[in-house]
Specification:
By secondary structure, the protein is an all-alpha fold. It has one domain (18-170). The chain contains seven helices and no strands.
């Protein structure tokens, strides 16, 4: 075969779509949501980890489909809303947007690189927090302060946790 034909027969690395077992698609987000709801009651420092967001970003990046990213983000967000004390739909809206944008970004970049995953996890955590703040002010009329320094530190923390988490979820 020529080099030209081999390039078209073998799928490019960034065009590969991960396939997941239906049990993994249900149980991993459920475990992340239950972790988010119940574990911070016992260990308050773990309340800074946004595992449902990281799972949303992971599945959206790996599936590389904006439609599936939207559905996955909406499902996780609404499930998280139903178990938390926040108004129903706030996390649903924000995680829907995160799922869409993460899946769209995964079509353009090689998301198998840990450095790219670190940057994307940082960006999507910041985006999630900022957009939640915007929705709280616009839809609910709440005056919620947006602390930039704290959000940046938490984005770094979540990004550092995301890289090994993504590696564990791939296995």
């Amino acid at each position: 075969m020529t080099e030209f034909s081999e390039a078209f027969l073998e799928p490019r690395k960034k065009d590969r779509i991960s396939k997941f077992n239906i049990a993994a698609i249900v149980l991993i987000p459920l475990a992340a949501i239950l972790f988010q709801v119940y574990v911070p009651r016992f260990v308050t420092y773990l309340s800074y980890l946004e595992l449902p967001l990281l799972v949303t970003v992971y599945f959206a990046l790996m599936r590389r489909s904006p439609v599936q990213g939207v559905l996955f983000g909406a499902g996780i967000g609404l499930a998280q809303d139903s178990l938390s004390s926040h108004p129903l739909g706030m996390f649903g809206i924000v995680k829907t947007l995160v799922g869409y944008f993460a899946a769209s970004v995964s079509q353009r970049f090689d998301v198998d690189n840990p450095l790219v995953r670190l940057v994307l996890a940082f960006f999507f955590f910041f985006f999630h927090q900022f957009f939640y703040w915007v929705l709280s002010r616009a839809l609910l009329g709440e005056v919620v302060p947006f602390e930039l320094q704290q959000t940046l530190v938490l984005a770094i923390l979540n990004a550092v946790v995301a890289v090994p988490l993504f590696h564990i979820l791939i296995s």
